[in-house]
Specification:
Helix Hairpins, 3 domains, 13 helices, extended
Length: 279
């Protein structure tokens, strides 16, 4: 007898929670999984989220979509399993919390008849922000080393570094402490690169991280000023390099040129670059 949708859902959740519990069983579980902590699993969740985003945005990886979703879900389930071992919460609590949270944030779908009439985008965003502020007000405050600051916001301290830089720039723009034109940001970027060059010239290793960080941060602000997402720009650059180097590999194979010859590889690179420009 074929299961209905509700039975399939129950079976899937039970099977998944049983899987993570078995992997973490002290006597018969997986040694690697047993060693993991919430902190040690965090980098894997980030990696899997990026792989999922890649599958979503790259057409040739579309058939990996389900697989990558499963990997992200596994990371969430493992965190919930570890939390359940410490009597904090379990995966069912995660589902329940998510349901309540996003029901609360969608009164235009689940609210009163009056709330359901407010379906224009301005009303939706205003409600979303209002509900989020109410949720944050109910949270137990995290002790801060300094008085309340605009930088206390989660958006300024979480996520990929380039996205953080973009959001920090948006925060500064909201108080009018910002550049006026992209050229001004570009001029500032040039000055940061000059400072980086001086650091390299004098081999000042202690200052290297500071200067590299300043350069990346300013470059992210330039992206913001020209209407580009810095994270996507970096991803685009990576993919462009990968695509071009694959062309280099193909030409090297066709011409029996070893990739261990840097002069030959550079010549092939310039050839592929010129071909791209010609279209």
């Amino acid at each position: 007898m074929e299961m209905n949708q509700e039975q399939r859902l129950i079976a899937a959740v039970q099977g998944f929670t049983s899987l993570t519990a078995a992997l973490r069983d002290p006597k018969s579980g997986c040694p690697w999984d047993l060693e993991q902590t919430p902190s040690s699993l965090a980098p894997f969740i980030i990696d899997e989220a990026y792989e999922l985003a890649h599958a979503i945005t790259t057409p040739e990886y579309e058939n990996h979509f389900l697989d990558e979703l499963a990997d992200v879900l596994f990371g969430i389930a493992m965190q919930a399993q570890i939390a359940s071992e410490h009597k904090s919460f379990d995966l069912i609590d995660v589902f329940t919390h998510a349901t309540k949270k996003f029901t609360r944030r969608h009164p235009h779908v689940f609210g009163s008849p009056e709330q359901r009439r407010k379906r224009d985008m301005d009303s939706l965003w205003a409600t979303w922000k209002k509900v989020k502020q109410e949720e944050q007000a109910r949270r137990i405050p995290i002790p801060q080393a300094f008085p309340t600051s605009m930088m206390d916001s989660k958006i300024c301290s979480t996520g990929p570094a380039l996205r953080q830089a973009d959001k920090i720039g948006q925060k500064m723009a909201s108080i009018k402490w910002d550049w006026d034109r992209p050229q001004e940001v570009l001029d500032h970027l040039k000055s940061e690169i000059q400072e980086l060059e001086e650091t390299l010239h004098h081999q000042q290793e202690a200052e290297m991280m500071d200067e590299l960080g300043d350069t990346f941060f300013t470059l992210a602000q330039l992206c913001r000023f020209v209407g580009q997402c810095p994270e996507q720009a970096a991803h685009h650059g990576n993919q462009k390099f990968i695509r071009r180097f694959r062309q280099v590999e193909q030409l090297a194979q066709e011409r029996n040129i070893p990739l261990t010859d840097p002069t030959a590889v550079e010549a092939l690179w310039q050839e592929c670059k010129a071909q791209e420009k010609r279209g």
